[in-house]
């Protein structure tokens, strides 16, 4: 597949840091990125901030991408003593009216299980998000393998709101988190 149009789309996504670019009236996706824990990891994950500008709550209920065998909405639950359990969130992620929800390292994420394609840093990957009310939104998500937020012991930054662009010390460390399904 040609990467050139994807790259153009990645620029558009990057621009959404500053401006809402997606054409959906209700849902805006900010600062999306995709990463794998290691270049050979069997799985990957996408993170982003989802804004809901509508007057009613919405819910991210599904996600799809051709680059993985399965894509699921996951949540990390802190089991204490540094143990994080990753669970498939069957109910999806609620996005409150006029609010936002952060999908961030150590918390909610879109999990790509069984990568068919293994994108390189700076490329982008296609992702379709399915919302209960807003319907489907198709994104090109830039691959950012260097992204290092969430390191350290920033406590629980999982809530929405006030997170800026995710550079702060939110969430838990990455590294050896058990993104190990399907293996
Ligand atoms: Cu996961």
UniProtKB/TrEMBL annotation:
According to the lineage, what is the superkingdom? Bacteria
Region annotated Disordered sits at 152-183
**Organism name:** Meinhardsimonia xiamenensis
Q: Where is the signal peptide?
A: 1-23
Give the UniProt keywords, A-Z: Signal
Matches recorded under Pfam families: PCuAC
Record carries keyword Signal: yes
Nucleotidyltransferase keyword on record? no
Write down what this protein is called.
Copper-binding protein
């Amino acid at each position: 597949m040609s990467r050139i149009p994807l790259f153009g789309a990645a620029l558009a996504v990057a621009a959404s840091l500053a401006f809402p670019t997606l054409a959906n009236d209700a849902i805006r996706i900010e600062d999306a990125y995709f990463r794998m824990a290691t270049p050979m990891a069997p799985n990957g994950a996408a993170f982003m901030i989802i804004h809901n500008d509508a007057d009613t709550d919405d819910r991210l209920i599904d996600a799809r991408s051709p680059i993985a065998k399965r894509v699921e909405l996951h949540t990390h639950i802190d089991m204490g003593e540094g143990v994080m359990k990753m669970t498939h969130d069957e109910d999806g992620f609620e996005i409150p009216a006029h609010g936002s929800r952060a999908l961030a390292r150590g918390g909610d994420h879109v999990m790509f299980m069984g990568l068919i394609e293994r994108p390189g840093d700076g490329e982008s990957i296609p992702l379709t998000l399915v919302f209960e009310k807003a319907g489907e939104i198709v994104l090109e998500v830039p691959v950012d393998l260097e992204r290092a937020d969430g390191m350290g012991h920033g406590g629980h930054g999982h809530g929405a709101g006030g997170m800026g662009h995710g550079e702060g010390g939110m969430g838990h460390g990455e590294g050896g988190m058990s993104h190990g399904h399907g293996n």
